[in-house]
Amino acid sequence: MMLVLSVVLGLVPLAGIGWTVENGLITTVDGLFMSTIMLALSGILFLNVYLEAHKKFTAKKAPPAQKSS
After folding, report:
1. Residues 10 and 42: beta-carbon distance below 8 Å
2. What is the DSSP letter of 26?
3. SS3 68
4. Tens of pLDDT along 9-59?
5. What share of the chain is helix, strand, coil (3-state, %, to 5)?
């Protein structure tokens, strides 16, 4: 559930960047800072998606056997 929520919330700032570009606000200083902040938000959320997916889908390995002397 957290994985899906992070994907959805990661796509929202990317849509905001698209809206900023569409309206021509990307050329202003405010638009550049807003786009930078939204890219950072998306990056953090997609990093969370990557880490959760990596943790969930990797096979759990058995601990290595101990050698007896």
Report:
1. yes
2. G
3. coil
4. 999 999 999 999 999 999 999 999 999 999 999 999 999 999 999 988 886
5. 75, 0, 25
Burial per residue of 41-56, b for 16 or more beta-carbon CB atoms within 10 angstroms, e otherwise: bbeebbebbeeeeeee
Sign of the CA dihedral running 29, 38, 43, 27? negative
pTM, two decimals, is 0.78
Q: How far is CA 44 from CA 7, 10, 20, 29, 64, in A?
A: 11, 8, 20, 23, 34
Nearest Cα residue to 17 out of 39, 49, 2, 1: 39
Helix (H, G, I), strand (E, B) or coil at 24: coil
Could you give the CA distance from residue 49 to residue 7 in angstroms, rounded to a whole number? Answer: 7
